[in-house]
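quick one before i forget lol
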Amino acid sequence: MPHSRLSISALSSFSWSFEQDLALWRELGVGWAGLIGVKLGDDIDGGLARLADAGIRASTVIAAGFDLSAPGSWEATRADLHSWIDAVAAHDGWSVYITPGRTTFAPWGDVLETFAEAVDKSSAYAREKGVRLAFEPSMRTDVSFVNTIRDAVDVAERTGLGIVVDFGNCWMERDFRETLLRAAPHIALVQVGDVPVGSVRGPGQPPPGGRVPFGEGDLPLARMLTDVKDTGYDGPLELELPGPLGEAEGYDAVIRRGVEKASMLFDEVRL
């Protein structure tokens, strides 16, 4: 039986449809799942209703973020984002998150002010609806000008948004534990995964730093999960398993292994 806090991100089966995702989640008996907004298309409420009918809550919905270089597009982005917030609120979901957006190439503080202006109404709207609206700091500079948890704390304090802590993006941060503890008041969602750190694994294997199935890389997952536990975060722990091995081996097998290993480790750490 999966751990009660374990969620499976739809990013783990990126090429599957929502129907395929839902079938596996139901079979596995998970209580949480992370959704990709584009997989549901226009049937936002219907998709979340089907999830709820299966006894599964949305740990998050990944929604489209703001183009910081195109303020004229913000109103449309905001309307879509509010639709997701409404649906998540209606079906007792946990969070909605976006990426902060690519830099405008202005000084970093100026980019933050632009982001704050873009998200201000949505941040307030989510609070009114009782939904955690968050952003994910990422090493992908095409979608995020915020690349570390340290910087994310500054962004959270300025915008009122929560932070998505993704092991795949932040495992290498200096003073990982201390940084998480500082971020604790702002943590809206934790995503767990694994990576190989500087190890050569042979032809066809992911390069160092790429993601691998949970528990099959080099991260000190028990220690990192203990650090998460000590922040006081008590929400879903989202298993994110994208990567070339999942694509090559097949999503089903990789997800099943990940659920089993993660559930065992969550129990060991007493999450």
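fyi Residues 108-129 form the longest helix (22 residues).
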